Q: What sequence folds into this?
């Protein structure tokens, strides 16, 4: 008898027969054997698991890094094109090469979002701190962004969805006995000091029913432990009046055949055994024999199962509301998996993982049904159709059991990858999986453009945890699972994942609003500067103004990490097309506002160049901070949620500092005075409202065209 939980996550030890494999790193619970070593190191099942973890680490992907690279490449290309045009025009006009290069360098530094990775990383770090307060430790910051877009959660069963401890279900007791009798005899045939996972729930029921005093009246003379041959335990006891009693428990088929009560209906007992097996229960038969009796007296059946955690069903229901589908992946057999799936309302479509490997038994089952029906009708022509169907069902059920333990020829059924992916997407879970199967399932779902979360607690979960976009090790997980995971839960159950998803979506909203802001500001600056220099031969701001402008815009914007945002009711992910369209429109509006100001002060009012540059500096500072309040929500700026005081105060302080700098000059620029500063603020606020109108108009266009809200 081997404990394979490290590799398969099975709740109970399994019995091995001659010729079967005993995997490395499994534990012998009972019995002995002579074995031949067929593999060592990386050639063992455990070694392959370690290899999969390394493979997953090499193939790791990050949607966050891809987004930063895409945005960076776009802005760098845009900046280089504009600067190349400026330099070419400057050379054509015989301008100073050194001044052109200095200005181009400064413009490049201000336009390229060098602060973007820092701001986004700080935003995710703040989110990680919030998750830590909710007992979720983040070991890879990118996982927060992945968690926000997760649409499928693959969850291990044992220890994650369930409690990883056996408990009793409603027993079957013969009419002449009571449940107290059943558990008393079962406890007498057990030994508490063994801490056997099958016997512990029996002793818990004894405590609950108050049977300890009754049991203490018996003195143990001899105890025979369970062995794979006899498949039962037996205790010889002595009562207080000196009479002998023998109590036994074990495999129900074995115990039933030992009993010959005069009114004992074996067929009914077997029907209950079959019914418990259909639910995935591990069943124990209980019987006793008094002194002078030849045969045992059957008492009843005790069904055992690993119960779900108290919060699992509610958590899965809430995940559905959040747009996240839960798929259960377990090493346990199909019947156990289906029973737990029904209890947790995961779904009825639980499949044997062998189907994904081209080892489907469906054709064999259909063939067995057809053949058995034909044989029954041929041998017993006078049987009614209902009886024929009953016999056929029994035969097919037995065939399914045999097929579950029979090695099929490899590649019995060939499937295209797209068919396998469709099958995985359709299924609610998979049973009888090994570590490589979990890895396989996650990999195929990722190829179908899903963002996958994986929860687990054992060594067998490590490859899939590392492969998933967001690997989550649950409370009490092994060191291997924790090392492979991106997020480690410190509190039991899955409820913490809900808090993590909500916090991740808040963090994502902050990151996306900043990204749109940063792209829009770059477009505004680079195009306005390029057109002003190229077309009007006018430098709207000096090089030192650009540097100060970059500092005043980027440093306070770190406060976006503390902003109030909406929590989406579905997964959110980067849509670069939408991000670029929105930032492009806002950037274009900013360019128009700058050229209108240019016309007013330069053409209409004919102000001096140095004064105009100082006024433009003030306008760019004030308007730049207004853009973040346009992009922070996908609704009118005055709607809830309102900006946080940290973001609002940081932006106002930065804008005030820029205004004071423009008002007094401080030998960096020509002072514009408070009157012009007030005029710039009014002008910027008017365009802030106009920008919000542009934003809402673009949003409505997308909602009408695509039927969904643009998430910014």
A:
């Amino acid at each position: 008898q081997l404990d394979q939980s490290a590799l398969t996550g099975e709740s109970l030890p399994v019995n091995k027969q001659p010729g079967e494999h005993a995997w490395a790193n499994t534990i012998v619970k009972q019995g002995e054997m002579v074995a031949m070593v067929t593999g060592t190191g990386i050639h063992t099942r455990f070694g392959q698991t370690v290899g999969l973890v390394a493979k997953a680490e090499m193939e790791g992907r990050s949607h966050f890094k891809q987004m930063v690279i895409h945005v960076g490449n776009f802005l760098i290309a845009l900046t280089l094109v504009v600067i190349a045009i400026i330099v070419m025009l400057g050379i054509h006009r015989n301008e100073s090469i050194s001044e052109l290069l200095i200005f181009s360098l400064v413009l490049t530094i201000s336009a390229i979002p060098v602060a973007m990775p820092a701001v986004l990383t700080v935003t995710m770090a703040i989110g990680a701190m919030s998750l830590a307060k909710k007992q979720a430790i983040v070991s890879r910051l990118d996982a927060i962004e992945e968690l926000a877009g997760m649409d499928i959660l693959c969850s291990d069963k044992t220890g994650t969805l369930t409690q990883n401890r056996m408990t009793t279900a409603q027993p079957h007791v013969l009419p002449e006995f009571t449940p107290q009798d059943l558990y008393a005899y079962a406890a007498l045939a057990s030994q508490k000091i063994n801490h056997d996972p099958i016997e512990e729930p029996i002793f818990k029921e004894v405590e609950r029913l108050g049977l300890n005093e009754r049991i203490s009246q018996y003195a143990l003379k001899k105890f025979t432990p369970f062995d794979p041959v006899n498949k039962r335990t037996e205790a010889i006891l002595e009562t207080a009046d000196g009479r002998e009693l023998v109590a036994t428990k074990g495999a129900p088929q074995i115990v039933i055949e030992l009993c010959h009560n005069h009114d004992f209906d074996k067929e009914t007992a077997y029907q209950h055994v079959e019914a418990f097996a259909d639910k995935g229960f591990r069943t124990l038969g209980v019987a006793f024999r008094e002194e002078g009796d030849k045969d045992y007296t059957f008492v009843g059946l005790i069904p055992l199962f690993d119960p779900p955690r108290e919060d699992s069903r509610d958590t899965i229901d809430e995940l559905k509301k959040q747009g996240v589908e839960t798929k259960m992946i377990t090493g346990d057999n199909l019947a156990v998996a289906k029973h737990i799936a029904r209890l947790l309302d995961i779904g009825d479509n639980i499949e044997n993982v062998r189907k994904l490997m081209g080892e489907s038994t469906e054709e064999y089952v259909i063939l067995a049904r057809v053949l058995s029906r034909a044989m029954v009708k041929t041998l017993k022509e006078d049987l009614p159709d209902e009886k024929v169907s009953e016999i056929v069902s029994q035969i097919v059920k037995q065939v399914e059991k045999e097929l579950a333990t029979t090695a099929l020829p490899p590649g019995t059924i060939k499937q295209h990858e797209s068919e396998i992916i469709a099958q995985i997407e359709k299924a609610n879970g998979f049973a009888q999986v090994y570590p490589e199967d979990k890895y396989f399932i996650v990999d195929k779902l990722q190829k179908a453009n899903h963002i996958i979360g994986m929860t687990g607690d054992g060594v067998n979960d490590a490859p899939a945890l590392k492969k998933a976009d967001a690997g989550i090790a649950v409370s009490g997980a092994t060191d291997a699972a924790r090392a492979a995971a991106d997020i480690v839960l410190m509190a039991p159950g899955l409820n913490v994942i809900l808090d993590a998803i909500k916090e991740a979506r808040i963090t994502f909203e902050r990151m996306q609003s900043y990204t749109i802001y940063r792209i829009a500001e770059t477009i505004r600056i680079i195009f306005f500067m390029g057109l002003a220099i190229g077309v009007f031969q006018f430098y709207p701001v000096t090089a030192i103004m650009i540097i100060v402008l970059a500092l005043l815009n980027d440093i306070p914007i770190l406060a976006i990490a503390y902003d109030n945002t909406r929590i989406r009711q579905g997964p959110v992910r980067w849509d670069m097309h939408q991000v670029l369209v929105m930032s492009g429109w806002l950037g274009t509006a900013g360019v128009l506002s700058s050229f209108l100001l240019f016309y007013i002060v330069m053409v209409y009012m004919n102000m001096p160049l140095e004064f105009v540059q100082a006024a433009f500096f003030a306008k760019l500072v004030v308007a730049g901070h207004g853009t973040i309040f346009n992009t922070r929500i996908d609704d009118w700026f005055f709607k809830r949620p309102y900006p946080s005081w940290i973001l609002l105060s940081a932006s106002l302080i930065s804008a005030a500092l820029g205004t004071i700098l423009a008002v007094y000059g401080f030998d960096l620029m020509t002072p514009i005075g408070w009157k012009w500063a007030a005029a710039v603020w009014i002008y910027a606020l008017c365009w802030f409202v106009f920008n919000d109108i542009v934003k809402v108009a673009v949003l409505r266009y997308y909602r009408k065209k695509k039927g969904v809200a643009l998430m910014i």
